[in-house]
Each structure stands twice: as C-alpha cells, then as structure tokens.
Design brief:
Blueprint (H helix, E strand, L loop, with lengths): L10 E4 L2 H6 L2 H6 L4 H13 L8 E6 L13 H13 L3 E6 L6 H7 L3 H6 L4 E3 L3 E5 L5 E5 H5 L2 E5 L1 E5 L3 E3 L1 H4 L8 H9 L3 H13 L4 E12 L7 E11 L2 H11 L8 H8 L39 H18 L2
Parallel strand pairs: 2-3, 2-7, 3-4, 7-10, 8-10
Antiparallel strand pairs: 1-11, 5-6, 8-9, 10-11
Helix pairs in contact: 3-4, 10-12
C-alpha cells in the first residue's frame, strides 16, 4: 500500500562542516557515530521500504565530468549512501552516463573508485539503450539497466544551471539517457524549452520506484552545471518525490517557475509536489537554514538547444577520450 502522505514529505538534516572536511572513505565503515553517517542513515530510513534485503538498487549520482570535483555528487555522500544501502542487505551498483568521459573515469578522478571495489560495490556506465515512447510523443532511449533495477536511488548534487536555472533531483534522472543521446536531444528538442522540460519529467516517470537524496552540503551557485562557485549549505535532504525535493530548494532560493523551466512545466502538468503548499517538513525546513539566503541563481539563462557544431565537437571529444582510455 502506497503512503501518499509520505510522498509529500521532505526530510532535512544538517551536517557538521569540520567533520565533513576531514572525512576519509574508511571512516564511513569504521565509525558509525559520524554525524554524516547518522544523518544519512535517518534520511534513508525515512524514505526507503522497510526491507530492501536482496533488492537491486542503482545508486545514481551526478557524474558530469572528471575535471571539476564540484560538479559531481560529493564522494562523501556517494560512499555513505552506498555503504548504508549495502548494510541493509541491498545489492548496490553505482551507475551514471556522464556527459563527458565515462562513469569509471569520473569515479577514479574523484578518488572513490578503489573504495567501491574494496567493499564489493560494482560501478558501471549506463550505456545500453532501450527505446521507449513518452506521453509527450517523443521516442527516447533510456538505459536498459536503469529500467530493469528494483529501485533507483537518485543522488544529485545541488547546483546552479545556466540553462535550467537549478539542477537537482528531477534533472539528475536525465542521466539515465545513455551517452551522446543527451546532447542529441538538446539538439533535436531544445528549441522548445517546455517540450524539453516535459521530456525530462516524463523520463523520470517511466523509471522503476525512485527515492531521492539531495547532496546540498558543498553546493555550486552563480553558474553551472560546471564552473560555478562553491557555497556551503551543510544540508542533506531526502524525499520519495523528486519534485518535492526540488520545489523545496526552489522556494528557499526565492526562485519563480518562470526562471526554472522544469518547475514551470511540472506545475503546468499539475504535479502536486511542484506546489510548495503541498509539501510537509516533519523535521527541519529550509527556512531554518540561514545559509540558503546566500545562494545565487544564474542571471539570464542560456538557450537549451545545442547547435549542430557544438554537438559534433562534443562527439569528437568523446570519441578521442574513448580511444585514449582504450578497451
């Protein structure tokens, strides 16, 4: 039986910055009294099914690219969530389809790949496509692995975004689109921002049950999804609804739907958790977190559409990187 009330809840915890800064991967296994581990454990308990033993869970961080550590989900959150899911008996796989390079390359650059190998958690790209039709009329390829898992654990890093205003839980699920197809869909469908936003929303609706945890510890603001400025919010938040999680942060930063294409389209579609008044906060609310007042969204947004030249250059770079990495 689905708890519809729980679907509107957003659970928020604070994180100690000094502990976060000095954390090492091995600490997450050795010290269960860590502030971050305790906070995330409670956040998982609030949104996961009671028994996940034996379930296949795809842990889906943001692994945009390897050259900018701030543009990917922090290794601290990736490692903590992975360990806690494994401790609950789940069969965890870490996977994403980065815009640049591949998932293994990004995890290695983040210094966390060896840790996952040591604790027996496989890491993978989401490269094998399966075509599906969306209600908006578009035929889209989605990762076969993402479609076949039992649960997707969506783990975005909170970032400003030069095209979408802010990128969080809903946008992070666009990462289940394999490889170059993400850029291709920018080229094909980006001219109409409402259609592109609806496509992203409907991709999330086609996926298996999804739970969400926002890495809003060290965030990126002013610009993004890469090349922005760091800002410490010291917050982690979970919800069964990606829209509830994102709407919470939109509201905290004083954004309006007109500045956030995905938010505007989700309200147009009548998604309940795209309206702030429908969301409950059983623990903390972001209004109690003073640091959110300093978060700056980008100014005028860039066009969503990619030019053919940009698309071709991106494909050439990806192919060259693939040749450099080898089989």
């Amino acid at each position: 039986m689905v708890n519809h009330r729980l679907n509107t809840d957003v659970f928020i915890k604070r994180v100690n910055k000094e502990e976060y800064d000095r954390l090492r991967p091995s600490d997450i296994i050795d010290d269960k009294n860590l502030d971050l581990v305790k906070a995330v454990d409670e956040l998982l308990g609030a949104v996961l099914p009671r028994d996940i033993k034996g379930l296949n869970i795809l842990l889906k961080p943001n692994l945009l690219k390897s050259k900018d550590p701030l543009c990917i989900t922090s290794w601290q959150l990736m490692a903590t969530v992975a360990v806690l899911l494994k401790n609950r008996g789940a069969k965890v796989t870490v996977g994403d389809s980065p815009a640049f390079g591949n998932a293994i390359q990004v995890l290695k650059a983040a210094g966390i790949l060896d840790f996952f190998s040591k604790i027996g958690i496989p890491c993978t790209g989401l490269s094998v496509p399966q075509k599906i039709g969306l209600p908006c009329g578009l035929d889209i390829s989605i990762s076969k692995k993402a479609l076949e898992t039992d649960i997707i654990f969506n783990l975005p890093r909170l970032k400003a975004h030069c095209q979408m205003g802010l990128t969080g839980a809903v946008k992070n699920l666009y990462g289940v689109v394999p490889g170059f197809r993400k850029a291709l869909y920018h080229l094909l469908y980006g001219k109409e921002s409402s259609l592109f936003a609806r496509m992203i929303i409907e991709i999330g609706q086609q996926l298996p049950p999804t739970v969400n945890l926002m890495d809003a510890t060290l965030c990126m603001h002013e610009n993004g999804p890469s090349g922005g400025s760091p800002i410490w919010l010291g917050t982690v938040a979970s919800s069964q609804s990606a829209h509830a999680l994102d709407t919470t942060f939109y509201n905290a930063f004083g954004a309006t739907p007109e500045r956030i294409p995905i938010w505007k389209e989700s309200q147009k579609m009548g998604i309940p958790c795209a309206f702030y008044q429908n969301i409950r906060f059983p623990w903390l609310s972001l209004e109690e977190i003073e640091e959110t007042a300093d978060f700056r969204l980008p100014g005028e947004l860039d066009p969503i559409i990619f030019s053919p030249t940009r698309f071709i250059k991106g494909r050439v770079r990806s192919l060259l990187k693939g040749l450099a990495i080898g089989p």
